[in-house]
Amino acid sequence: MVSTVVNRLLGEWAAGTEPALAPARIHAHPRSQESPSAMTDQPDPKSFRPATRLINAGLERTPYGETSEAMFLTSGFVYDSAEQAEGTFTGDVSHYQYSRFGNPTTSNLERRLCDLEGAEACVLTATGMGAVSSALLAQVRAGDRVVASRALFGSCHWIVAELLPRYGVETIFVDGGDMAAWKDALSKPARAVLLESPSNPMLDVLDIRMICELAHKAGATVVVDNVFATPLYQKPLELGADVVVYSCTKHIDGQGRVLGGAVLGNAKWIDEVLRPFTRNTGNSLSPFNAWVMLKSIETLGLRVNAMTQNAARVADFLADAPGIVRVFYPGRKDHPQYELAKKQMSAGSTLVAFEVEGGKEGAFVFMNALRLISISNNLGDARSLVTHPATTTHMKLAPEERARLGITDGAIRFSVGLEDADDLIDDLKRGIAALGNR
Ligand SMILES: *Cc1c(COP(=O)(O)O)cnc(C)c1O
Q: Which EC number applies (predicted)?
């Protein structure tokens, strides 16, 4: 009875058209559904260039014709009949079921991320760590081996070093640039490989193509954490990776508002390996957060390109500045893996690492003198942020492990934002002056 009234109030939409549903597939522009002539007029969405696709890919309007993507802030969905509910559960009917499994707004973002990445399928997760942990836990079982690069985001390191061994998984860390060590670790069968390039926080660049070749010989699924390069500047799937993970909290939201994560890969792996795990363990993104990110992804290219231009300028400035021992930026010729970076990335991206004189004291004096650039452990934000990894994000690592990763006490990670580069340089001069006055 109630549902009849609601159907009448909603008119055509509820009674008639069934919203298109399949999660995370690339969809034609919805206008193509209007009429046969509109269908023939409509250019193939894949013929659009990347900036256009950041705005249009995966867009599915409701019959109300809203300009902005609709936000479906709903936990569940109702069925017209018991038969439709039954069919939804057997899979014979295409209908949203429950937002832990799928939701029109999150599906919209999944389709757009698939398009951006060139992936067949995507599952969004509540956070970036949700993406990394699901991508690994969905596939491993006791007795498996997992090989990972040593230089990982702190929580990723914890999952490999602490969590997986608890479940009977053998884990092996390798120095990312040591190809002999990769070869050795992958001379025996392995279930998965996890790597990050450029790495956090010192921006090591790893040879993704070569590691994928070795990993595949060992039967491993390669998971690449592509946060630092962003989907714009590095395409791990084209380099041979099987799965790409993101913290969407970083450049994809990019404005410090919401947490989110994404796992992308081929449809078979996502549907058969990952999705049963995420559906049943509940690591789902809120449709509200997905909607926020649908808005921010429209400007991803504008923001990340401008931040990268700033990063390149700031890195050049720091390289010649007094009190700065060393600068690491994948876009600079003096980066230890510059040639490799040039081969597998199309730009240096938004992060710069540098080391100041005076160890921890020097780093603290430098950071405390900044007036524009904020001290924070986040990154990829429109605001410029600096971090002292040795005492924050990487404090839990043993000192020898930090030394091995090149995280000295004077090292600072700089996530370069959208401010005017001259203002950023003026602020860095404050830090440099304070270093000189110590
Ligand atoms: C931030 C980050 C993560 C974790 O993402 P959250 O959204 O904070 O959970 C994982 N990997 C890298 C490289 C990151 O920068």
A: 2.5.1.-
